[in-house]
Amino acid sequence: MSLEKTYIMVKPDGVERGLVGEIIKRFENKGYQLVAIQQFETNKDILNQHYEDLKEKPFFPKLLNYMLSGPVVGMVWQGKDVVKTGRKLLGETDPLKSAPGTIRGDFCIDVGHNICHGSDSVKSAEREICLWFPNGIVTWERKCMHDLI
Ligand code: RTP
Predict the structure, then answer these.
(1) What's the predicted TM-score (pTM) here?
(2) Ligand 1 — pocket residues by CB below 6 A?
(3) Range 118-134 burial, b when 16+ CB lie within 10 A, else e
(4) Vertex 139, ends 135 and 144: CA angle to 5°?
(5) CA-to-CA distance for 75 and 77, rounded, in angstroms?
(6) Mean pLDDT score, 113-141
(7) What three-state secondary structure class fits 136?
């Protein structure tokens, strides 16, 4: 059985502020397993592919500038219901609407600088993982990730 996977990305402001460890800690504390991590210099080509659904949005040029402002850290996490639960750990897109206790609720106030990205569906996760990790990822699974019944 292959465990559900999601693509979580620490955006340039999160990397700049030294929040990578904090974000890893929250996913590990919850019980998820990190299966890939890499720091990337972004470029327009990969960002256009990553955000292909948002190209027509009025905020897209601002989003592109933001995502080009520094390196990002891309991660693949796996575990039960990790796509949906991962988005809950991140909080709402708008940090001011994010509950305290979520990453965005605790660390930011501006939708244009909201620290992190999380795939919004299993299908998007598969697409994003292939985009950012084209050479594939390790598929090792911890025993404790499965129900042992
Ligand atoms: P993400 O993809 O980063 O996890 O964010 P999301 O699904 O929660 O939100 P989405 O609508 O896909 O937007 C992607 C990113 O665009 C920026 N944004 N700016 N009104 C604005 O200025 C605005 N709206 C969205 C945010 O960085 C958002 O995470």
Answers:
(1) 0.95
(2) 54, 59, 63, 93, 111-112, 114, 117-118, 120
(3) bbbeeebbebbbeebbe
(4) 155
(5) 6
(6) 94
(7) coil
**How high is the pLDDT of residue 148?**
55
Strand partners for 130: none
Q: Residue 111 carries which side chain, given as an amino acid letter?
A: V
- Domains for the chain: give ranges and CATH numbers: 5-148 (3.30.70.141)
The strand order across the sheet containing 72-78 reads: 33-40, 72-78, 5-10, 116-118
pLDDT digits (tens, 9 = 90+) for 2-34: 899 999 999 999 999 999 999 999 999 999 999
Q: Is 117 a catalytic residue?
A: yes
> Is 69 in a helix, a strand, or coil?
coil
Ligand 1 centre distance from Cα of residue 34 (Å): 23
pLDDT of residue 142: 75
Helix H segments across 31-81? Answer: 44-50, 60-67
> What is the per-residue pLDDT across 81-105, written as a single tens digit (0 to 9) for each?
999 999 999 999 999 999 999 999 9
Q: How far apart are CA 52 and CA 107, in angstroms?
A: 27
Cα(124)–Cα(50) distance, integer angstroms? 9
